[in-house]
Each structure stands twice: as structure tokens, then as C-alpha cells.
Amino acid sequence: MATNQYFQQYSTATEQSLINDLIIEAIKIYGVDMYYLPRTIDNRSTTWNESVLTSYNSAWVAEMYIRNVDGFAGDGEFLSKFGVEIRDQIVFTMAQSQWTSEVGSHISQSRPLEGDCIFFPFTNSLFQIKYVNVKPIFFQLGALQTYDITCELYEGSSERFNTGIDAIDSVYNAFSLDQNVFDLLDESGNPLLTEDGQYIIAEEYSIEAVDKFAQNDQFVSGGADFIDFTEIDPFSERATVS
């Protein structure tokens, strides 16, 4: 026996628009304003096809609904062979039409992408997108209205932040090991260069100052005392004294 002809699973565009408007209104009521940070790959390795130098140069305000309202999901905090790791996850829901109008149209991006970041002002936390579920619902009334964005707490890899939001830039650039973050700039914002074309770095730049546990100097001096490649490497910088 056929389904009822007066109730269709794939409805008209008018009803789809109504559902979309209701979802947007609900997110505006129960959601939170977030900052969306699109990732810019400044230098990509052609050998490994991976990002060598990454920056975040803009931030766009967009309302999102927090799916796991009881607390962070994911593996939480655990002790691994690399020490204590924090794997807190959070899932944001965003209306697709709002994404297009508030973010996507400004950065020429069709959807939220893995690798981009979302800043949560309420907790002053930065999350990196790990997975975007582009079909979180089973075509409600024949259309898709939302994105489910799964994020993990951001782990820095010396990315540059130039978003113009001081709460983001000042905090996360302070933990960067990239010396170019400490370039001295002129009045136009361009880096100052030496006669040889080298960047002039601020005097306070120091890996040890950024990373309190860094032992670079100790490793260099210690390695020079017992590592000798002269017997197996004729091009070693250490010369053999006869």
C-alpha cells in the first residue's frame, strides 16, 4: 500500500525555507557567538604535501549551538608516552545558510574546513576543526540545514595569528617558537631588514623564554662532546687531528 499522498517526505521549497528559518532562530536563541578563523597555508611542502608555514589572518563572528552542553567530550586528559595530553572535544552546530552569509561569502569557502579554528570567548579557548559532518540529518523535508563541526582543543605548532583580536593574537603568538613572530616592524607594518636581507628580531626573542622546558643549548653542547661522524662521514665538519 502506498504512503499517504497528502504527506510528502520531500516537501516544497517554501516548507524547507520555514524549517531553515526555525533552525536559525533557535541557534540565535540558544547559541553562542564564536570567532571563526580560516587557515591560510603560506608554505606547503611539495614533497610531503603538508603545511610548513600556517597563519590565521582573520576572524569572523558567527553564532553556533553547542551540542555537548554537559561538558567536553573526547578522551579528556590522559598520560601518554609524550606526557600529559588533553583531548577535549566539542561539537558545534551551525546553519548552512548562516555559514554562507556570515563567513563563507567573505573568504570564498563553500563550507567549514578541517584545520580552521574556532575561538570560544566564554572560556577563552581555541579549538581546531577535526571533522565536519556535512550531513548531520537525514535530509529533513528533503534538504540539509546544518553542519556539525567536531573540534579539539588547539595544540600550537608555531602558527601565526594576525586576526586583529587581541585576546587571540597576544595569547597564542606568545607560545610560538617561530622567530618571525618577533620581527620588528616599521610604521606600515612591514618587517625591518638588515643590509643582507635578514629579518631584524626583537631582542627578547628566546626559545628558552617561550618554552621553559627547552634545553637546546644543553643538547647542542652535549652532543658535540660524544658524537663524531668523521669515521663514517668524510664530509663531517669535525676534522681529524693526527
Structural features, described:
The structure is a single chain. The chain is of the alpha+beta class and 242 residues long. The chain folds into two domains: 13-173, no CATH class; 179-214, no CATH class. The protein contains five helices and ten strands, in the order αββββββαββββααα. The chain has helices spanning 13-30, 96-107, 166-173, 207-210, 216-226; strands at residues 32-37, 40-45, 50-56, 60-66, 73-80, 83-95, 117-120, 125-133, 146-153, 160-161. The strands form two sheets. Strands 1-4-6-9-8-7 form a six-stranded antiparallel barrel. A hairpin with a 4-residue loop joins strand 7 (117-120) and strand 8. The chain starts with 12 loop residues before the first helix and ends in a 16-residue tail after the last helix.
List the SSEs and their pairings:
Blueprint: H1 13-30, E1 32-37, E2 40-45, E3 50-56, E4 60-66, E5 73-80, E6 83-95, H2 96-107, E7 117-120, E8 125-133, E9 146-153, E10 160-161, H3 166-173, H4 207-210, H5 216-226
Parallel strand pairs: 3-10
Antiparallel strand pairs: 1-4, 1-7, 2-3, 4-6, 5-6, 6-9, 7-8, 8-9
